[in-house]
Amino acid sequence: xxxIIWLEMVLIGASILxxxxxxxxxxxxxxxxxxxxxxxxxxxxxxVTVAALRGIEALAGKKSEHTEDE
Length: 70
Hints:
By secondary structure, the protein is mainly α. It folds into two domains: 1-29; 34-70. 91% of the residues lie in helices and 0% in strands. The protein is built from three helices and no strands. It has helices spanning 3-27, 30-33, 35-69. The longest helix is centred in the last third of the chain and has 35 residues, at 35-69. The protein starts with a helix and ends with a helix.
């Protein structure tokens, strides 16, 4: 097995552990369990996701423009 595939599998496994830990920590906060808290966390998550995806898209666009120029 190529080393990159092994490292990607390790990264996925670590991500699962981090996700589970964050969920457990949020369960300890009473505010995060409330309907308002869940709505706020959902909104923040959506905003951060859209910002990250737009950043990735912008970088991918710059990379493809740079490749076409060569």
